[in-house]
Amino acid sequence: MREPVFGAEARDYNAAPMTQANDTGATLGLPEGLTGEDLLDIYATMVLVRTLDERVWAMNRQGKAAIVASCQGHEAAQLASVWALRRHAPDYFLFPYYRDLAVLTAQGLTPNESLLGFLAKAGEPLSGARQFPQHGAMPERRVINPSNVVGTHVPQAVGWALSVKLSGAPTVVATYMGDGAMSQGEVHEAMNFAAVQRLPIIFLVENNKYATSTPLHKQMAIAHIADRAVAYGMPGVTVDGTDVLASYRAIAQAAERAASGGGPSLVELDVERYLPHTSDDDDTLYRDPAEIEEARKRDPMKHLSELLLGVGLLDAARDAELRANAKAEVDAATEAAEAAPFPPDDDVLAHVYEEQ
Amino acid sequence: MSTIIELPQVGESVTEGVIGKWLKQPGEHVDKYDPLVEVMTDKVNMEVPSPFTGTLIRTLVEEGDTVPMGQPIAEMDVEGGASSKPGNEGETYHSFAFNDAVRSVGPTGSGEGGHGRPDALQSTAAPPVRPARPVSEPGPLAGLSPLVRKLVAQHGVDVAQVTGTGMSGRITKNDVLRFVDSGAPDRGEAEAIADADATTTLALTPLRRTIAEHLSRAASEIPAAWSMVEADVTGLVANRDAHRESFEREYGVPLTYLPFAAHVVAKALGDNPRLNARWAGDHIVLNTAVNLSVAVSTDAGLTVPVVRDAGGLSVTELARRIHELTAAARSGSLMLDDVRDGTFTLNNTGALGSTVSVPIINHPQAAIVTTEAIVKRPVVVGADAIVVRSMMNVCLTFDHRVCDGAEAGAFLRDVKAGLEAIGPDVSLL
Amino acid sequence: MATMNVIEAVRSAMLEEMRRDDSVFVLGEDVGSRGGVFLATQGFVDEFGEARVIDTPLAESAIAGIAVGAAMRGHRPIAEVQFADFIWPTVNQLIGEAARIRYGSHNKVHVPLVVRCPYGGHVRGGLYHSQSVESYFAHTPGLKVVAPSTPYDAKGLLKAAIRADDPVIVLEHKRTYRSVRGEVPDDDYTVPIGVADLKRQGTEVTIVTYGLTVHYALQAAEELAGEGADVEVLDLRTLSPIDEEAVLTSVRKTNRLLVVHEDNRTGGLGAEVSAIAAEGAFDSLDAPIMRCTGPDIPSMPFAPTLEAAFMPTADKIAEALRRLLAY
Fold first, then answer.
1. Contact B114/C249, CB-based, under 8 Å?
2. Is the Cβ–Cβ distance between B117 and C192 less than 8 Å?
3. Contact C199 B105 (CB under 8 A)
4. Which of A99, B286, B373, C71 is deepest in the core (most CB within 10 A)?
5. Is C129 assigned a catalytic role?
6. What's the CATH number where A115 sits?
7. Are C45 and C15 in contact, with CB atoms under 8 Å apart?
8. Are residues B396 and B315 in the same domain?
9. Is residue C72 part of a domain?
10. Looking at the structure, do residues B391 and B311 belong to the same domain, yes or no?
11. Does a structural domain hold residue B249?
């Protein structure tokens, strides 16, 4: 079969240079493949994503961004996954879900492009503003997120992995979902099929313990989603999703397993959701403010900055600089996106079929 | 007795089977449900159980034969002489003879140049296209919607006269109805065109044109004669005055002299059928029913709706029906049945102040009558007494081919008598 | 040229495409060693191996979703749904997802998949082996739906569907599988999607139909020919997009239209064809457009008498034709 070619300007994230392990790395006990510089990159990305996330939430409250799903609390899990795949899979492809702003940013979606999506402007790269922000496809950046219906992308990701296996490509597929999706029948069918066919795929579950308003104990009678993996014949592990290193380790292992023909894995990343489900949700109706306060204490950005400050990879000045840079970048992106035009009306009929 | 056993239809959409090993041999006893023969089909491999108890006489097909389901495969001597066919638990599968030759008969005539879009391997040579049934020249009704065609036929409209206001000049329902009773809206009232000679030209509305043609025809074809009587309607006036208010209150309809006149005229026509007739060239047609055409003036001209079977209606019923028709005429909503089949016309010219009229017959009828204005006049009653009475003239134009002065006079006498008989206490029902 | 039945034509189409293009593969229940319950894939696993002829677990929504994912990457999966009656779990992936992916990604990715299934009744299939499902899919922009009636059309349309870069639902009437035979060319050919076909030329009335009822309509036409009426039969072949031009051309010629389908009446494709004809050929119509369809009850009851009462058979179609011609 002719291998798919996804666009001319593919930014090759696999070609990121491997920085040498240094003393700091040894001190930190970093997992194989991850350096101190990588951690700083991850932190800088986290700061950028957090700034962007807070900005679009504010823009929603200003009436400018129609719908926002925040990824605050999930950043470490998401960024760890991308770095782990870069370092431990020869090639990878991602099927994220609606809360994965950090994944998309790590895959090259710029703040400006993100904002074009939130403001539904022309030039939005995933869907031409036909879909909710962050939905559509940018296969040249190795991301497909076809719809915001919960769980539907999971069998599709398995199909992608089947295609990978049929063509003998060295790609590892990762698909992301929340705890809510783990109740959807199709997701179970997909995991079953992936295990039966021993496909190179990782099921990444960002468990923030709420499916909109439904707490975990009303969704399942078990305590750990990872326990379901064994039922399908694949390994499953639960890790602290707010800890970059723990998340990285687990996902790296899953990536190696998939890459070496060992089949699928499930990695449950235990995270917290500080904000409501989306900008249209009122979590005061079902969540105790004290509980949210507790949850905020598990802040991946705080954890990582403390870690980096602690080992001297980061100082207060550098931290302030990072934050200032992030704000400047997001400010500039906001301005540009606000000035950008909407897609033209005559675009509305295009691309239903190949011939139109 | 000898019974044929058929290969049963087993398996969804399966139509044939391949015979395998015969499990019973000719001459062998067979119990019902004993396996008889192996059969292989696309869906299943099976053993066919015997439908009967008896002795197998002979097999009709051999191992390896492909047999359509339903075909005989064996003959059996059935114990107890069972009927030759199993009962109606039978028809498991509706049979239908599919035709192998079903294929494309050519392009659909659509696509570029009407050659259609043939498939890659089908013949691109145009197949012999059978000519469509010869279509007659598109007649005058071509391009009109079914509803418009119906209205055109009902009203006898000359389509060429009607201006269409629909898309691309299409004639719509409203265009036809407007044409029929109040003139085309595009012309509106006759346009006045200033003329250099200080005269004014009025363009003809379709209605005016119709009236002109109709009456010209009547005038030229019918040898018309005229007569008149006077009627003492003092009693009628009193009757109407007495009943007016309550009538209007009860029926929401004003009470004029017209329904009284219609009632009298309809009865008189019943007694004088020669006036309710028409000239038919080589014979005269006497109409059975009295369908009274009642002249109504509207803003755009004269309309003559018909009260059907007026002979059977009371004054009250006539008043209400005439009111309905008048309203419909004025609002342009008369239907076909409202304007056809009139047999005699009544025109209440008196409403316009006339005391004597010479009406023109409403072709193809035989006569027309007018009721003139009611005027108080001194008249002689008894030997020489002079009293003031309400007097009304009744004028009649009649087709002299259909009847003579005698019949006309008799009719008018009856109308006069009828009107004069209406006293103040006569019921309207 | 060879004469074959519809299931052989279907099998032949898939064989040829799988040999021609190694991105084509088959997945579904019992398609491997069993060769498919209607034997559509008989012999495939021996020729192409288990990797390209995949026996899936009993999970239609996964079959569809996995096919969508593989198609997005560039394979051309042919997903078999064993009976159209089992297609409902796939609706989420086919109607909700596959139909919208090209549009929703602004043409960045597309879904060249085929879902094929046996549909239709008059085979004593009861309520769950007889359903017609086309309306739901034909109503969905982004999907294409085809329903061949002959072996020639079945092979050509399936090949076209496999080669198409959009998701195509291929509905094969199970009654035609073995009962309908016809000539099929030996060399490579396709039947274009979106093109209807004249199966009988006529001048007085047009029947627009598809699937099994094409054959019943042809028989009704023959019966009416014996009574002096000249009936045209237009086989839609593609249900989405409907070949509007073919419908209008025929109606403008014959001036009377009878739409026939086995599917339930309300919201069936007969309504769509009727609207097309009314909008586009109003001035050509000499009589109201009529439909002869299955009734609005779950299709189809198991008892043979009830099933026959449901089905638009040749005699019912003939009756409808007589009524229409007499208008």
1. yes
2. yes
3. yes
4. C71
5. yes
6. 3.40.50.970
7. no
8. yes
9. yes
10. yes
11. yes
B200 and B229 both lie in a single domain: no
Cis peptide before A46 (omega within 30 of 0): no
Q: Is C118 exposed, middle or buried (0-12, 13-18, 19+ CB in 10 A)?
A: buried
Could you tell me the two tokens for C174?
């199970």
**Residue B361, C-beta contacts closer than 8 angstroms, at least 6 positions apart:** B218, B222, B224, B345, B367, B368, B397, B398, B399
Q: Band of the pLDDT at A1, cuts 50, 70, 90?
A: low
Interface contact C234, partner B, CB < 8 A: yes
**3-state SS record for B361-387:** CCCCCCEEEEEEEEEEEEEEECCCEEE
* Residue C253 falls inside a structural domain: yes
Mean pLDDT per block of 10 residues along chain B (429 residues) reads 86 82 95 90 82 93 92 91 49 76 80 51 47 52 80 85 81 86 47 59 77 86 95 94 92 92 96 94 92 87 89 93 90 78 94 93 94 95 92 96 95 96 84
Q: Would you say residue C310 lies in a domain?
A: yes
Residue B99 forms contact with C (CB below 8 Å): yes
B45 vs B120: CA distance, rounded Å: 40
Could you tell me if residue A18 is inside a domain? no
Expressed as residue numbers, the domain containing A210 is 32-343
- Amino acid B21 reads K
Judge whether A16 lies within some domain: no
Whether B101 maps to a domain, the answer reads: no
Residue A15 lies in a domain: no
Q: Within 10 Å of residue C155's Cβ, how many Cβ atoms?
A: 27
Tokens of B191: 């346009």
Please indicate, yes or no, if residue A139 is contained in any of the structural domains. Answer: yes
pLDDT digits 0-9 by tens, C77-112: 999 999 999 999 999 999 999 999 999 999 999 999
pLDDT at C246 over 90: yes
Residue C138, pLDDT > 80, answer: yes
Residue C98 is given by DSSP the state: I
Nearest CA in chain B to C304: B92
Question: Judging by beta carbons within 10 Å of its beta carbon (0-12, 13-18, 19+), is residue A26 exposed, middle or buried?
Answer: exposed
The set of catalytic residues of B is 400, 404
Amino acid B128 reads P
Nearest residue of C to residue A127, measured between CA atoms = C105
Give the structural domain span for B239: 222-420
The residue annotated as part of the active site, out of C129, C173, C215, C261, is C129
CATH number at residue B258: 3.30.559.10
Q: Are B152 and B247 contained in the same domain?
A: no
Measured CA to CA, the distance from residue A155 to residue A136 in angstroms comes to 16
B248 and B202 inside one domain: no
Question: Domain limits at C201?
Answer: 197-326
CA closest to C199 among chain B residues? B104
Amino acid at A73: G
Residues of C in contact with B141 (CB under 8 A): none
Amino acid at C233: V
Q: CA-CA distances (angstroms) from residue B320 to B246, B258, B306, C54?
A: 14, 11, 13, 83
Structure tokens at C269: 């494709």
Structural domains in chain B (count)? 3
Sequence-distant (≥ 6) Cβ neighbours of residue B31 within 8 angstroms: B50, B53
**Boundary-marking domain end, from B167, B185, B208:** B208
Please check whether residue B66 lies inside any domain of the structure.
yes
Say yes or no: B183 and B233 in one domain.
no
Residue C291 lies in a domain: yes
Let me know if residue B275 belongs to a domain.
yes
Residues of C with CB below 8 A from A346's CB?
none
Q: The domain that contains C159 carries what CATH number? A: 3.40.50.970
- Is the per-residue pLDDT at A51 higher than 70? yes
Q: To the nearest 10°, the Cα dihedral for B155, B161, B163, B169?
A: 100
Token pair for residue A94?
């991602």
Contact B256, B308 (CB under 8 A): no
The ipTM of this complex is 0.89
Contacts of residue C52 in chain A, CB cutoff 8 Å? 166
Domain count, chain A: 1
